[in-house]
Amino acid sequence: MPINTYTNIATVGITILALYIAYQQYRIQKAKVRLDLYEKRFRVFELTRNIILKTLKSGPLFNQDVLNSLEEFSMATSERHFLFKKDVNDFIANLKKDLIEIYSIDDNTPDSKLKDKKNNLLLSFHDKVEDLPRVFSPYLSFKKL
Fold it and tell me: According to the model, what pLDDT value does residue 33 have?
């Protein structure tokens, strides 16, 4: 066989190898993007769960730990609009509204209606803990990323 034929075969082989490497790099990059998206979504899930659990744990008492958690939660969930659809965004917006309402009602208020409202909101947080997996699971499944 002439040398020209060997050169052509080698060129084709190198081209096929380069295409294979490029495809593998594409798959790795795609998996990395999926993992990054998962990590961002899971962080929002964790913070949402933590703020609900801290609220349930502290009850009607507003303390520095709850304040710090509220600040962290608000900052970390600010990008949720880009990570989730309407269902999760509405869940978090309602959660924030309820948190503000719970902690804006003074524990020492003589108004029994306000105290009842605050207690009912706190009781609703038990349901929110139960709803978390249902609301977030479609976004934390690798099959759907």
Answer: 93
